[in-house]
Structure formats: structure tokens, C-alpha cells
DNA-binding transcriptional regulator, HxlR family (Halopseudomonas sabulinigri), 274 residues
Amino acid sequence: MPEEFPCRTHCPINFALESFGDKWTLLIIRDLMFKAKQSFGDFLSSDEKISTNILADRLRRLEQLGIVSKATSEKNRSKSIYSLTQKGRDLLPIMLEITRWSGKHDPQTHAPDALLQRLEADTPSVITQITAGWDAS
Amino acid sequence: MPEEFPCRTHCPINFALESFGDKWTLLIIRDLMFKAKQSFGDFLSSDEKISTNILADRLRRLEQLGIVSKATSEKNRSKSIYSLTQKGRDLLPIMLEITRWSGKHDPQTHAPDALLQRLEADTPSVITQITAGWDAS
DNA sequence: CTGTATCCTTAGGGATACTG
DNA sequence: CAGTATCCCTAAGGATACAG
């Protein structure tokens, strides 16, 4: 963890909280991981309506933490492309367990039923499927 | 989710964030789940130094969300005993995946090495062991 | 389109005194 | 011991205008 972000303690739960324990960061990771979003404008268009200054701050922070990497689009030189690093992709099991928990406990949750059923039946194979395309990029 | 806490969206990731996506709630759950803490004073004594008003607020909120339940100690009538409900205990897989992620990515993390190694080897059996005593209480 | 900058409001939360 | 009640301050964040 960079010096800019001192940790209260190095308990693993607290470390995670200091990395992505706010109301916005995990939504950006969700968009990168499950919704194939990759540009500033993509994130802006999500239903939760993040504002530009907050989004820029969280992307910068995620980059500093080594969870997200930033590149310039080859097609359009003024367009940035964000993607998950390995550290970011390693968050997948957490995201899946969160999805499972919400699917079980939120009667209104909009989790894709097919994903929840597959998670219930066999989490490892779901992970394999989701990560299948990651190594290529 | 109680009406007092309207959700931005019912995406499962967002539902979880609205339930425990702040800087304190997950630490209380950690203390209940792994550190056998159960009283107001127990939580107060944790290393992250939560203040009394915030702690009271989060406990009340967790109770309203059905993640924590509150009872009065039989020994001491003016002492409250907090414990995880089934909904709260269902957070265990998330907590373990968070622990594993931090163990891998925070060089300074103080996760119990024994736990991390057991997690790496066989997560299901770790869950069985941790939850062994839960049904009794 | 990708951000930056600014203004302004509110929520989060530390400190602490106090009560049953 | 288990909270409640204040005071006060700072950080978070919404809205929006603007710049490369």
C-alpha cells in the first residue's frame, strides 16, 4: 500500500476496507469485471450516477493501489482504457461471494439468476468460465 | 432492506455496499466472527478505536438489517450481548476471501499464517471448522 | 471524450461529558 | 458497563462549468 494511504491496522479485513471499502470503488471494479466497461464515460453511465470528480479520484486511487491499470486507446489518442491488473482480478472470488450473499438475502436483488444458480452449484467452474478471456488481454 | 435505508440500485454488489460498505461495519462483524467479541466494550477495545456514538449507530443499523441480534446477559442485567444471525454468519465466505486476498497482496498484513495456509489448501474444510460451534449458540 | 477545478452542502465521525 | 447527547470539524461528494 502506497504511503499516501496509511492503514489504521494491518488486519486483513481492515486492509481490504482501506483498499476498496467505500461506496464507489467496488462499483467500478464490478463494471470492469462483469460489464466490460473500460472508459471514463462507460463508468459515468452506470445506474448509480457517480460524478466526474469522484470517478477520477477513485480511478487514480485504484491505479496507485495497483488494482487497475490505465492505457491510451490506439484508435483514439484522447481516449483512456482502464483494465484490471492481476491484483484486481484476484478480487473475483470476493465479488462472487458478495453476489451470492446478496442473491440470498436481498429479495429485490437483480443478480442474474443464471449466475446465482451456477454459483450455488459449482463456484470453481464459474470462476474458470469468467476468467477464460482474461489472459488474452 | 428496511425502508430507512433506500438502495441506489439492487445490483448485488451495491446491495452489499449499502449493507456493510463503510469503514467500520465489517470490523464489527470481524470481531463477532473471529474474535469472539460480544459486548459493547469488547468492540470499543479493538485496535481501530471506534468511538461510542459510531459504534452504537452501527450496532443499531446491523440489528435493523438482521445481520446482528441483541440480547441481555443473564448474569448481568445491564449488559448486552451481540451475536451474528444466520444472515450475518452467511458473510463468512466473503470474510475468508477478503482474508485470502489481503494475505496475498498486503506484505504487512497480520493475517494468521496458519489460517491463510489452510485457506489456500482447502477453503471448505476451514469453513466447517470455523462454523462448528455456531449452531450451539 | 477525458478529465480538472470550484463551489457548496451534507454526512461521517472524533472527543468528551453525561446518564441509567 | 452500555449506551446517549453534544459539540465541532473534516472529508465525502453532488452540481456544474470549463479545458485539452
